[in-house]
Hints:
Low-confidence stretches: none
Shape: globular
Distance between the termini: 40 Å
Largest sheet: 7 strands, mixed
Structural class: mainly beta
Radius of gyration: 14 Å
Amino acid sequence: QVQLVESGGGLVQAGGSLRLSCAASGSIFFSKNTMGWYRQAPGKQREFVATITQGDSTNYADSVKGRFTISRDNAKNTVYLQMNSLKPEDAAVYYCNANLYYTGRNFWGQGTQVTVSS
């Protein structure tokens, strides 16, 4: 079992920045897992934001490329999402995801709210 706890959400003005964190526990193979961030705005489906593999290969949604950066600290079992130049359309609940290397199972955090005022 894997537990994921997100933090760092909040209210920010358009053009501002936030850094989300996701601390993982329960999986001793954190460094092997692909970690990701997804988001869900009210009335919309959950959508992909970014992923980072065990080899630090990253992938981003077109809507956030050049503004968001995903990174990981394997020593701390933590993945981050640095969000710059935030737009009102970035407002959503942001969820951390872990895709386990050995089983392929997916785990989700409880989400953290990001609100962007215009």
